[in-house]
């Protein structure tokens, strides 16, 4: 048996230099157990391929884990000639030559300038360089293409970067997404022009057919292929995966578009890109395709492509010379032009300097798309191995430095803490109550509307409700945050249940005509950054409170039916960064089996638990708006330690006592309000008191934070399963209780952030007349620390 049966390798004279010629023997695919007969499985293609994938996946995972803070992977360099490639046995067996796989206005201006400015600088350099440096003909002809590729900012790469940094749906993230899309369009236009010019120099007939077939290609996509895909999408049941035959048809259509584009003299990616722009994103089609392709693409093929792109790159091939120096200068000015072309228009549009620098760094980042272009140029002989190595090295260095800088420079939540305090306690008790309610699915709606109805909308005290429909980003690259119309336009990509949600809130607004204003918004974003959309709407609409649904849902028998860690993460982020107060609604409407307040069949039982502190004061301020509703029976329960007097310097002047006394004074004579003051000595007594409300309660309202060393709560910290609800809220959210719970948190304050960005103190003004005025409180009562 010969040393190598699968192929023979030798050098031949190429157009520019010696090239490797591989003669591949046929029918040597599967080793079929040759190892047991003394054979070498690496003489067969399938074992080599499988071994390559194993090594690439392992090395990619390890390097990604090590370099995670830099968000980089250097798999190709490690596996290539620079390091392991020097090991002869490794190169011959695992990666032989025959075994390598082939695989808003501001945004418009920024996207255009960040492409054309580096392109103009590169072309100018190309005109100047030949007068000072003598280059080989091959290097001189490749300079324009290098300058063009060096000006690219790829849309898929930028959206992937933003998603990795959890800023895809941030303010800068949205600008970068649109700007990169504009830059991509500019690149494709330039490619079409250059391709047409090239055909002009070749043949007039080719130009004619290029002009004719270009529009025909677009017509075929829009009027033939797009309707075919839409027809397939309509037959995908909601919430289910597409059938195998549907998936195969779509893949064939994609391949046809790539083939047609290539046949017309354009990159194959251009055809698939146009097709992707012509069909709708998101579920059911987009998410189904992602489900089919995501794991094998992101987990296997992309790392393999990165690894194989580094196999032909040798860091030691970069030597001193005129060609290498010219390419290096051209690359440097390309990055400088891109950074400047982004920074200047960003500052012109009054983007803060820190954010403008972050945006400029984002637009300078490169990824797999650019790497594929470099590989293609190197394989086609447009650039040599030295220029190829310089392009990849510069991409790794710039992107590796830019990513951690972006992470430390840009914090989307910074603008929330520069905003003045917004809460129910600090608002005018006779003014408009502005509430943002967040919805993940239709099951959140009934109890949310009952809470809104209980808030007693009146003409003298109207309620502005902002409905934010939250959907996980699937099957599309860019996040969405936009206002939508409650009727006639879908709130999300799923029309059926979104229309039901809109109808429910429209009915609520009609029942309270002139007292309720409802506006709808749609957010499609990753769960990791979904809180940014919630906080953005809250900030822009100046809401007093945000109400988010709890991450657990209960079945009819009281057991936990659904538990979403992703929604829990969203709630925790909102509670940390919201520019206003936050309420977490633990919905047990189905479990309780009671009518909602809209039904009007029975009294709606509400219990307010008051233990003291900023969050309980905020909860009491909200509860004070409920007592005028004739369908509500309210039980106010103040839990106090037996020896509470010795803990108060002046009992009658404490903020908690002032609020409670004023609430009692305002509700004297109201038969629907029951006031209870319970004296307890320990956590056991607190638990016993809370147990007494179970039989007569539809909704319990309580503040989140209470002093953990209080004698009322000692021992409860050991059983705190959901810290975001606080000690009492967590206990009420267990399966032992059957009523809904609203846990209220006053606007969070971050001491570390406040030290860096001090707020301008804004005094809270209260109405000095009227039944529920809080004018007796001083300004300190509007802060979260007591």
TrEMBL record:
Domain Cation/H(+) antiporter C-terminal: residue ranges: 606-747
The Cation/H+ exchanger transmembrane domain, residue ranges: 103-401
Domain Cation/H(+) antiporter central, first and last residues per copy: 461-590
GO MF: antiporter activity
GO biological process, one term: proton transmembrane transport
Principal location listed in the UniProt entry: membrane
Subcellular location: Membrane
UniProt keyword list: Ion transport, Membrane, Potassium, Potassium transport, Transmembrane, Transmembrane helix, Transport
UniProt-listed Pfam families: CHX17_2nd, CHX17_C, Na_H_Exchanger
Transmembrane regions: 44-67, 107-133, 145-163, 175-201, 207-225, 245-265, 323-349, 356-375, 387-410
Entry GO CC: endomembrane system; membrane
Domain of life of the native organism: Eukaryota
Topological category with respect to the lipid bilayer: Multi-pass membrane protein
Family: Belongs to the monovalent cation:proton antiporter 2 (CPA2) transporter (TC 2.A.37) family. CHX (TC 2.A.37.4) subfamily.
This protein's name: Cation/H+ exchanger domain-containing protein
């Amino acid at each position: 048996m010969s040393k190598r049966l699968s192929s023979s390798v030798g050098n031949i004279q190429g157009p520019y230099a010696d090239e490797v010629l591989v003669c591949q023997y046929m029918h040597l695919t599967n080793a079929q157990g040759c190892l047991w007969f003394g054979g070498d499985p690496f003489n067969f293609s399938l074992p080599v391929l499988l071994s390559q994938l194993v090594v690439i996946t392992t090395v990619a995972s390890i390097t990604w884990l090590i370099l995670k803070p830099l968000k980089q992977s250097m798999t190709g360099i490690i596996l290539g000639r620079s390091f392991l490639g020097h090991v002869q046995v490794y190169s011959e067996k695992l990666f032989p030559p025959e075994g390598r796989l082939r695989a808003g206005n501001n945004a418009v201006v920024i996207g255009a300038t960040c492409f054309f400015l580096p392109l103009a600088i590169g072309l100018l350099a190309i005109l100047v360089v030949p007068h000072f440096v003598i280059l080989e003909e091959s290097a001189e002809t490749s300079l324009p293409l290098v300058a063009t590729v060096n000006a690219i900012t790829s849309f898929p790469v930028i959206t992937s970067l933003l998603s990795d940094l959890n800023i895809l749906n941030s303010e800068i993230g949205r600008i970068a997404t649109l700007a990169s899309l504009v830059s991509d369009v500019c690149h494709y236009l330039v490619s079409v022009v250059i391709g047409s010019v090239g055909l002009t120099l070749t043949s007039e007939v080719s130009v004619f057919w290029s002009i004719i077939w270009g529009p025909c290609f677009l017509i075929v996509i829009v009027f033939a292929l797009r309707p075919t895909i839409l027809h397939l999408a309509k037959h995908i049941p909601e919430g289910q995966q597409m059938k195998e035959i549907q998936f195969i048809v779509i893949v064939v259509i994609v391949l046809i578009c790539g083939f047609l584009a290539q046949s017309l003299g354009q990159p194959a990616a251009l055809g698939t890109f146009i097709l992707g722009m012509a069909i709708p994103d998101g579920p059911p089609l987009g998410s189904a395709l992602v489900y089919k392709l995501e794991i094998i693409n992101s987990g296997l093929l992309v790392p393999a492509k990165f690894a194989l792109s580094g196999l032909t790159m040798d860091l030691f091939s970069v030597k001193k010379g005129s060609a290498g120096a010219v390419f290096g200068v051209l690359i440097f000015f390309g990055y400088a032009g891109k950074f400047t072309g982004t920074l200047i228009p960003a500052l012109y549009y009054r983007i803060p300097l820190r954010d403008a620098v972050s945006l400029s760094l984002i637009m300078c980042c490169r990824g797999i798309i650019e790497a594929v272009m470099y590989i293609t140029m190197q394989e086609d002989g447009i650039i040599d191995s030295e220029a190829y190595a310089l392009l990849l090295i510069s991409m790794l260095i710039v992107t590796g430095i830019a990513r951690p800088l972006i992470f430390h420079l840009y914090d989307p939540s910074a603008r929330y803490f520069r905003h003045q305090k917004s809460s129910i306690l600090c608002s005018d008790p006779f003014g408009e109550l502005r509430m943002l309610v967040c919805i993940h699915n239709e099951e959140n709606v009934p109890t949310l509307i009952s809470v809104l109805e209980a808030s007693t909308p009146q003409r003298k005290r109207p309620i502005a409700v902002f409905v934010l429909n939250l959907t996980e980003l699937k099957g599309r690259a860019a996040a969405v945050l936009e206002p939508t119309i409650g009727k006639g336009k879908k709130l999300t990509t799923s029309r059926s249940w979104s229309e039901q949600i809109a109808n429910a809130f429209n009915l609520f607004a009609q029942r309270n005509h002139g007292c309720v204003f409802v506006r709808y918004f749609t957010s499609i974003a990753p769960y990791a950054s979904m809180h940014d959309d919630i906080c953005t709407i809250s900030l822009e609409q100046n809401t007093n409170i945000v109400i988010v649904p709890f991450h657990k849902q209960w079945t009819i028998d009281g057991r936990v039916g659904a538990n979403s860690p992703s929604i829990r993460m969203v709630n925790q982020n909102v509670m940390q960064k919201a520019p206003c107060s936050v309420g977490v609604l633990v919905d047990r409407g189905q479990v309780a089996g009671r009518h909602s307040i809209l039904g009007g069949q029975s009294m709606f039982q509400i219990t307010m638990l008051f233990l003291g502190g900023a969050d309980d004061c905020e909860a009491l301020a909200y509860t004070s708006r409920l007592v005028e509703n004739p369908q509500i029976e309210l039980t106010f329960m103040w839990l106090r330690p037996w020896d509470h007097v010795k803990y108060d310097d002046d009992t009658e002047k404490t903020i908690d006592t002032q609020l409670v006394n004023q609430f009692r004074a305002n509700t004297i004579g109201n038969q629907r309000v029951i006031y209870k003051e319970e004296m307890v000595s320990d956590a056991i007594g607190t638990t016993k008191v809370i147990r007494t409300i179970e039989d007569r309660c539809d909704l319990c309202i309580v503040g989140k934070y209470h002093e953990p060393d209080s004698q009322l709560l000692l021992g409860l910290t050991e059983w705190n399963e959901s810290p975001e609800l606080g000690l009492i809220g967590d206990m009420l959210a267990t399966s032992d209780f059957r009523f809904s719970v609203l846990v209220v948190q006053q606007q969070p304050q971050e001491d570390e952030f406040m030290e860096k960005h001090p707020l301008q103190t804004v005094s809270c003004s209260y109405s000095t007349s009227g039944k529920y005025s809080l004018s007796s409180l001083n300004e300190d009562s509007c802060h979260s620390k007591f």
